[in-house]
Structure formats: C-alpha cells, structure tokens
Amino acid sequence: MSPAEATAKVPTLRERRRAVATQEILGAAERHIVENGPHALSLRAVARDLGMTVQALYHYFASRDDLVTALITKAYEDLADAVLAAVDRAHEDPSVPRLVHAAEGYRRWAIAHPERFQLIYGSPLRGYAAPPGGPTTRALQRMSGIFQRELFAGFTTEQLAAADMPGPSPELIAHLGQLSPSGLGVLPPAGVHLMLRAWGHMHGLVVLEVFGHTSFMGGHQAEVFRVSMSHLVQDVHRRIPTA
Description:
By secondary structure, the protein is mostly helical. Helices cover 66% and strands 0% of the residues.
C-alpha cells in the first residue's frame, strides 16, 4: 500500500466527529427504547436528551426509519456477538453441543435486553419497513449463519438433502430455490425444513420466557431450556443419515 493509499483510508476529523455523534444518537435512542418501549421511540425525545434539535438530528439520520434501521441492525449485531461469544466458550464444557451453547447465548442476551429483543422480534413498528436486502437483512443472515454452522457442522449437503423430513411441495421447492445463497438458500429443501424447525423451537422458548410466560418454572428456566435444546440437537441429527 502506497503512502497516499494509507492516508486516504484514515478518517478525516469531520468523519470521526460524525461517527461519534452517530453513536451518541444510537445510544440515546436505545436508552429511550429501554425506558419507554420500541413503539414509543420519538426522534424529538432523542434529540432533547442529547441537547440538540430534531433538525440537527436529521443531519445524521434522514428519517425515523433510517434511525430504526440502524437500531435494528445494531441489535442484531450485538445479539450475534453474544451468540459467537457463547460458542467461543464452548470448549469449557465440551459435553454440551455447540449449538446448545449458541442457543444459550441467544437466550441470555434476550433476557438481558428484553426491549431491544422486542424491537427486532416483537410487533412491527407502525409504518416501518426494513429496506429489502439492506443492513438489517445482512445482520440477520450473519446470525442465522452461526446457527446453521453449529447445527449442521460435519454434515454434507448430500446428507442434509437426504434428511428424514416430509417432502416439500413443488411450489415450496421453487420458492426455496429463490432464496439468497448467503442465507437459507445455501441449504437443500430438507435442510431448510430442519433449520426452520430448530429455529422456531429455540426462538419460541426464548420469546415465551422474555415475555414472562414461563415464569411459573421459577429458577429452573435455564435448566429446562438446556434440556430442550439438547433434545432438539439429538432429534435433528437423528434425522440426517450418516455419511
């Protein structure tokens, strides 16, 4: 790399100040969500908390939707980081499948950040639509890729294609063929079935706990979740033929 190229990659003072201000806005918006819930997000309130005008805030986020997109993307990224951190510590307890460690990282983040979890998985914000193929989609694909890798590690595409799952309809097969190769589209139809089945089971249990529907289990919720996830992994792997 030439000196000119190295210099060109160094952010300018203006760019650094903008990056700092952007992070301050996101931080204030996240605090507002924690205190009031996602549906009460107000650009005017965020601007007031930062001592700036709404017009000044628009210099960093052109609209409310742009701010919401940034908040959802950051939530997905933080959640994915928590899942990766849990997987990275899997060697500390090798008796537990790595997918279970990933699921427990997902659960812990959701419990620790219920309002941000609600932002990405709760009722859609009225009037908001994520940009197709935008940063929220890429962030979600990153996280789902972690679960795909840990759930199907060691299995070939041919094995996943031969998994013991009900055969999809021709219409569904055609639809699956249109999925992005950077997401579920990398899997054969039977693999997509297994992945969605596992995801729905895990995510459903987490949603029930985050919204207080499993509180009757008291302090045993973590144990119940681990047992359920362990059985889930066993069932998924049982359906995939050996090489």
